[in-house]
Here is the input.
Amino acid sequence: MYKLKRFLSYLSYLYISFICRGKIVYVVNGARRSGNHAFINWLSNAIDNEQVNYTEISYTVSKSTSGKIVFFNEVNFLGVLHFISSLRKNKESIKKANYIIISLEDYITHKYDTFVPMKAIKIAITRSTLNLVSSRLKRAINVAELGLCRGDMVINQKFIDCLNALREANNWKVWHYDSWVEDKTYRNVFLNGLGFSFDLSSSVSIQGGGSSFTGSKETPNVHDVLNRWEKIIWPQRIVELLNDNPRLLTETEKKFLANL
Here is the structure.
């Protein structure tokens, strides 16, 4: 059964790669709240050399105003069959486009992954662990106050495994949100590595409700973005989980947790 499943997965990988042939494909993978959409909007602006707006053309699928970019959002959330269906339904938009951007969140990729077409340019999104955890906690609290559940903000060992995989991903370009926020040189060097030079980021990403702390109407300042861990109350369970995974922490983060 396992071999059959792997064989079908490989066939799906080949089929999806075939549909995406002739296009420049970017696969962007990161944990939720780590800056996936900030990167995607920034990359989109660089591709079009102007501020890009997206129009939804079907569920989880959007295209840029110019039509040069088709964006498939969080494809792993609804699974391979839905992704294949979305590709088939939007073949005309794909045919007219030059670029395809595929977003993955809280996902560990593998060889011949169906969500990562052959020859795709692979971007792993990383962020300060404490800032990332702070953002997830704040978003979960915000939603809980409305009487809703946000299970996709869970912080557990599976989440930790995802962070480790993102940092250790071979053949992936690693983009660090914190460096992007504060270092103009970092931005230019990363763009140049992708063959672009137009550096324009949206004031705040509207996808996913924007910032966990300021929403989508207010752009947080650089200091706040880089020190989110100061803005929350830290549950002991999460402190212990992070202390058990010191490789994910900077020395400053370790000292902060030690003083809680």
